[in-house]
TrEMBL record:
PROSITE patterns: G_PROTEIN_RECEP_F1_1, G_PROTEIN_RECEP_F1_2
Cross-referenced Gene3D superfamilies: Rhodopsin 7-helix transmembrane proteins
Parts forming coiled coils: none
Name of the encoding gene: LOC102371442
Keyword Cell membrane: yes
Residue ranges of domain G-protein coupled receptors family 1 profile in the record: 41-287
The protein's name in its UniProt record: Olfactory receptor
Organism: Alligator sinensis (Chinese alligator)
Amino acid sequence: MHQENDTMVTKFVLLGLSCSPELQPVFFLLFFLLYLITILGNFLIMATTASDPRLQTPLYLFLRNLSFLDFCYISVTAPKMLAGFLLPPQTISYGGCVAQIFFFHFSGGTEIFLLTVMAYDRYVAIFHPLRYVTVMSRGVCVGLETASWVGGFIHSIVQVAIILQLPFCGPNKLDNFYCDVPQVVKLACTNTFTAELLMVSNSGLVTLLCFVVLLISYSVLLAKLRTRSSEGWSKALSTCASHITVVTLTFGPCIYIYAHPFCTFPMDKAVSVIYTIIAPMLNPVIYTLRNKDMKSAMGKLWTQTWHC
């Protein structure tokens, strides 16, 4: 133990997406463009839902919160990845790695809980439209949002606790573009069976359970809607389609990454790109593409900005 303490790892080397020097400039331009689109898209949603009086309903309050989380989520990983394309290989201190894990799981965990809350909001809006304002009052919405943030914080603290209990005495190379528990745990110079089980139960199992609950709830919801008129079915399906798409895009890759801790697959890095970069970029597009109120409010905001 004394020898391990003398050779403790103080920094990790992030190997990034590719070791090919020819691909680094291409990757930098591509992911810088994706990052810029994500930032602008989510800020546009936050500005639109905050400025338009018609968009002060619970759905758009949750959507504004989700856009802020997407902005935080991608900002935890993308800047370090972009720097790695310009100056490979990129290094990160042990403390910086732990901090990245904390904020990555804090924003990601909160988003998962918030998506679950948004499903409940859609259920009330479709089946209890006359009681919607009463059931989803301002106080209830704030309470649900607060519970999502608290749940994300607890989830993140557990992830950090898993890392802090492990000794690292080499090697220190992470085959990824950011620090995350699955890759970091594998570098520990001790038996990590218990740590990996904790990771599965806290990340993989929780995400899988939330996903199953959402699938069951939407299946029941759509089954009940079939008895309604074709117009009501079409409107309700349009209301839920965006949320179902975002849920699938967010939960699917997370379940894949955190449900198999004891082995590594070639697709792991590509799947990581999907849920850390692609999903936060597509969420604003998915939620605004089929939403007439959002498109109308964005047009109004653009007109006001242009005149100013």
